[in-house]
Amino acid sequence: MQDKVKLIQYGVGPIGASIVKLVLQKEGFEYVGAIDVDPNKIGKDLGDVAGVGKKLGVPISGDAKKVLKDSKADLVIHTTASFLKDIRQQITDVVDAGLDMVSTSEELTFPSLKDPEMAMEIDALAKKKGVTVLATGVNPGFLMDTLPLTVTGVCQDVKSIKVTRMMDASIRRLPFQKKIGAGMTVDEFKKAVAGGRMGHIGLPESIAMIAAGVGWKLDDIQQTIEPVVADRPLKTQYLAVERGQVAGLHQVGKGIVKGKPAITLDFWAYVGAPENKDSTFIEGTPNVDLTIKGGVHGDLATAAMVVNSIRNVIKGQPGLMTMTDLAIPRALLGNIAKLAGN
């Protein structure tokens, strides 16, 4: 293993920028390339755009294939889009360049659910090129899939799994607040839901991952999305929500096994929520009731999950992986170049 793991940052939005900041706090990493399609970012230094307080000597390029080919990188941190149809070529380009990849794309966390043909193609190409591809984050990627699966490890049998995530969205980034509909009218929200443009992305992927992890065959995956309407004026750093407008959403995903909901993912995200919490209840032998009081800050945790998964991806077998295929993620507190060799 060389002295430093050489990275390309593919996408320098709010999450990409937070990942850059975290990477720079760790030992054994070096950025050698950066990619973004935003013309206002192209040509600027990665450090300036990410807001790290110093230049990194890495210009952001709009020519992905050139950066992937010429940068002599080891791994790409990919933070561009949620949907598989939007990133197919990006993934193929990274893998074809012979580079490992950690992505934050929600649908890529369990890609065989939405596009099994694409998943098989990427897996075959990754194995041919000898690289590992993983998508992760806080949710999907950990709180509503990997964590409950890990908790089932103490159970002799499992009858059902319920995970509840509640968060006050006022502390989250602007794109997240917009994604949950904060500030919309109820009619605008319902139209956006009907058009597939509203809601948390990834609950079906988390349900499919849990089912595969414990060996349940799903009859169906069901999902509902409803607005949470503000009963008083609310304000965040980025926007205002008037009384009667949408403050956020309540989204429920269910995995049906033998006609009954075996997996229930209960997701609340709205401005002004009374508390932040993450809880997992396993009905089994024994029952397990786990609650993280105060919840987990999604943006901070997403950056951490990506950076803390790099070691596992470097050490992983070639192919398209999910979080159930690799070692348990853990905090990266030493030099990545040395730890990856252990």
Helix/strand layout:
Elements: E1 5-10, H1 14-23, E2 29-35, H2 46-50, E3 60-61, H3 64-70, E4 75-78, H4 84-96, E5 100-103, H5 116-129, E6 132-135, H6 146-151, E7 157-168, H7 174-179, H8 186-194, H9 203-214, E8 220-229, E9 234-235, E10 240-241, E11 246-257, E12 260-270, E13 277-285, E14 288-293, H10 298-315, E15 319-321, H11 336-339
Parallel strand pairs: 1-2, 1-4, 2-3, 4-5, 5-6, 6-15, 7-12
Antiparallel strand pairs: 7-13, 8-11, 9-10, 11-12, 13-14
Helix pairs in contact: 1-10, 4-5
Give a short summary of the structure.
The chain is of the alpha/beta class and 342 residues long.
Keywords for this entry:
342 residues, alpha/beta, Rossmann fold, six-stranded mixed sheet, 11 helices, 30% helix
Task: Indicate the CATH topology of the largest domain.
Answer: Rossmann fold
How many helices? The count is 11
Tell how many strands the DSSP assignment holds.
15
Q: How far is the first residue's CA from the last residue's CA?
A: 10 Å
Shape: globular
CATH class of the largest domain: Alpha Beta
Largest sheet, strands/sense/barrel:
7 strands, parallel
Mean pLDDT, nearest integer? Answer: 96
What is the assigned CATH homologous superfamily of the largest domain? NAD(P)-binding Rossmann-like Domain
Are there runs of 5+ residues with pLDDT below 50, and where? Answer: none
Question: Strand content of the residues, in percent?
Answer: 25-35%
- Could you give the order of the helices and strands? EHEHEHEHEHEHEHHHEEEEEEEHEH
Rg measurement, Å = 20 Å
